[in-house]
Design brief:
- This protein has helices at 3-52, 56-115, 121-139, and strands spanning 142-144, 157-163, 173-178, 181-183, 186-189, 191-196.
- The model has no long low-confidence stretch (mean pLDDT 82).
- It has a three-stranded antiparallel sheet. Strands 2-6-3 form a three-stranded mixed sheet, with no helix packed on it.
- By secondary structure, the chain is of the alpha+beta class.
- Helix 2 packs antiparallel against helix 3 (121-139).
- The chain folds into two domains: 54-140, Alpha-Beta Complex (Hemagglutinin Ectodomain, Chain B); 142-205, Head domain of nucleotide exchange factor GrpE (Nucleotide Exchange Factor Grpe, Chain A, domain 2), CATH 2.30.22.10.
- The N and C termini lie far apart (168 Å).
Amino acid sequence: MDNDTEEDLKTKEEASSNLAAEDESASAAPAADEKAGAPAAEDAAGQAADEKAPDPAALAAALAAEKDRNVRLYADFENFRRRMERERLETWSRAEHDLLAGLLPIADNFDRALAQAGDDPFSEGVKMVHASLLDFLKKRDVTAIEAVGQPFDPAIHEAVAYQPSPDAPEGTVIYETRKGYKAGEAVLRPASVIVSSGQPGEKKV
């Protein structure tokens, strides 16, 4: 080959080498950029994760506060329920006692009627009705208050008079002018009584 041909070949080889070198540089640059950008992306992702991750101590405090609030709400509800139940029972008890107290004058009238009753069929019918009334009261735990011979008790007795008594010490009930009744431990009506003031002629100091 002549000199011109050899020079052309060398020129072509150099051009090919330069192109290959440029291609390698171009392909290496994105790879380098990717390697350089990877740590930055990881740092950003870690920072975002740290910002989103809740604080365990704050979560525990919030949970404890919520549990305390629920406990208080439950306690308030239980107190409210018990109070309403107690008020309901008290209202029912008062209504029942009012009804029972309203029947006591009827029992008084029966007592007065039977005190004058004979043995005729009409009187027997009155006795039967009276017995039915007393049975109704008994089933509702209504009992007569003991009076005569008992020490005067203002909680269950109502003194209408005081008079001397040769047989009863002072402060003792000697007569009952109207029966008193209790429903359980509640006084429906106190017994109206006359109370001994002591021996006749006894002077009070």
